[in-house]
Amino acid sequence: MTPEPIWLTIARKEFADALRSRMMWGIVAIIAVMTSLSAGISLLVPGADGGPEMAIGGASQFAGILVPIMALIAAYLAIAGERESGSLKVILGLPPSRGELLFGKFLGRSGVVAIGLTLGFLVSGVATAALYSGLPVSAFAGTTALTVLLGVAFVGIAIGISAVTSTRSRAMTLAITAYLGLTLLWDLAPNAVHLLVTGEMPGQEVPGWFLLLQGFSPTGAYNALVQRQLLGAGTAVEARIGGPAPAYLDPAVFLGILVAWAIVPLAVGYLRFRRADLS
Amino acid sequence: MDRGSRSRSDAEVSAADEPIAIQTTELTKRYGEDVLAVDDVDLTVYEGEIFGFLGPNGAGKSTTIDVIMDYVRPTAGSATVLGFDAQQETRAIHERVGILPDGYGLYDRLSGRKHLEYAISLKRASDDVDDLLDRVGLDKTAAERVVGGYSKGMMQRLALAIALVGDPELLILDEPSSGLDPNGVRLVREIARDHADQGKTVFFSSHILSQVEAVCDRVGILNRGQLVAVDSIDGLRDALGTGSTVTLTVDAVPDSLTLAAIDGVSDVAVDHRTIHVQVDEATAKVNVIDRARSDGAAVLDVTIEESSLEDLFSAYTGDAPRQVDAPEGER
């Protein structure tokens, strides 16, 4: 029997730690409650003609705000915390390489976030089905999968941040900056660019590049993909830009962007961490 | 246990072509522009010896170990461990080395037992956790508790147990006695001796000489990043001339006392029926006794007082004035 790879041993331990600290159950509870509530909100708005798709859309809006925070919290101390406490010296004095440690941490914490989100969404799926007496299963499953991917992307960002910082406080500063920059500030960027290019704020109809720019952040890509998932291919985009959708607005592009957000910060973090002096 | 058989001088060893456990070559580590933590250090530690790595706090001991363990990268020079390059073949080294690092931390929320299980799985070792606990004197009920509630001494014992996982060929202990009570300090020495008795190597850093003196075959003294001496404890005494004082109590001091003519004797003082002889070489001690008797004195008592290692240390590291001549009369 060949022993399991070392990164798997590390991932397992990270996962077990997260279960012990109840971090995962926290994610499940928050996601379940918030997405169920937001799914139910459209029922309370008088005159709103919402089906379960609208409900899932509402839940995903909430998830787009919440998931990045939870994923960042779940992983921003993964390396920096151990570096500050000195346990990193113990682990790296054992056989694991820095790369294996980083990868194992990414995997373990991604697992926690992924399972937490999936369980949370299952609860809200049941709630939605009960409220609307029915659930479009594939759209719901697709949205859940995309939300997991969004969570994993932010775990990658958080691990990357953790790998390039040597103290908890710096890791926290960077994590907050990343959250504000990638979720809140990024929404303003396309508007600002639009204003610069055309001289006016974006109206009902926008140019194609505006949507691409919006979708360049992890949350933006996630929103674009969820909309496509719920409203059907092309229609949402064509309505916004008033014409046929260009190739660069294909869902595959946004999927690529979202995956890149998981991998690139992790890779940058690794390259810096690999050479870092840990003293 | 025979420490003498393991100790040797540098010249003897380099001729013998013994396997090398740790070797640094022109090792230099700079932090930024101003801090030169390790300055051109050439150090060789042989397999099977207990090597004491001495120096005041901040001398660069931990930085040297950090490079050996690949926690930090050298600015210049290189290090090999058990024949493997510290930067290129880190995995091979870490599979064979156990370390108690300086400034380490443990996981507050994990029990002692879980720590050891994790270390065993990461090292692909097959140690029995209870055995390890026994070896470091940590009791089993304590091992079930989370480390967050451990005392400094308990943490130190657990960290030592982690270092012992996988029965490493080389044990690196960076200030292992800090936070330990006298029993713990003795335990560290026993572990080091046990390890060396199995033919394995121990690299032991400390800023306290007495902890190293009792257990090490050879010591290296690091001061301000530079290696200022490498020798056996006896060799260091000889080299510095801060040898020992042999005090003979005799029935009557002979008129024709020729002790001053013996090689290695630097000073002779007579006080009634007591003769104080300052000796720079270890072998001269017996000669002093023999000569006193052949000069016609009946030797009633002999005491030998080694100059303290603190004196030696100070002489090398320049923390205190060099003390060569021991005070007379008051002994």
Q: Explain this structure to me?
A:
The complex is a heterodimer of chains A (279) and B (331). With 279 residues, chain A is mainly alpha-helical. Helix content of chain A is 79%, strand content 0%. Chain A contains 12 helices and no strands. The radius of gyration of chain A is 20 Å and the shape is globular. The two termini of chain A are 38 Å apart. Chain B has 2 domains: 3-231, P-loop containing nucleotide triphosphate hydrolases (Rossmann fold), CATH 3.40.50.300; 240-317, Alpha-Beta Plaits (2-Layer Sandwich). In chain B, helix 6 packs across helix 8. Chain B is elongated. Chain B starts with a helix and ends in a 14-residue tail after the last helix. The chains are: A mainly alpha (279), B alpha/beta (331). At the A-B interface, helix 1 and helix 5 of A face helix 3, helix 4, strand 6, helix 5 and helix 8 of B.
Alpha carbon gyration radius of chain A: 20 Å
- The outline of chain B comes out as elongated
Total strand segments of chain B:
14
| Tally of helical runs of chain A | 12
Assign the structural class of chain B, choosing from mainly alpha, mainly beta, alpha/beta, alpha+beta, or little secondary structure.
Answer: alpha/beta
Number of strands of chain A: 0
Structural class of chain A: mainly alpha
Overview features:
heterodimer; A: 279 residues; mainly alpha; 12 helices; 0% strand; B: 331 residues; alpha/beta; Rossmann fold; Alpha-Beta Plaits; 2 domains; 6-stranded mixed β-sheet; 4-stranded antiparallel β-sheet; 13 helices; 34% helix; elongated; disordered N terminus; disordered C terminus
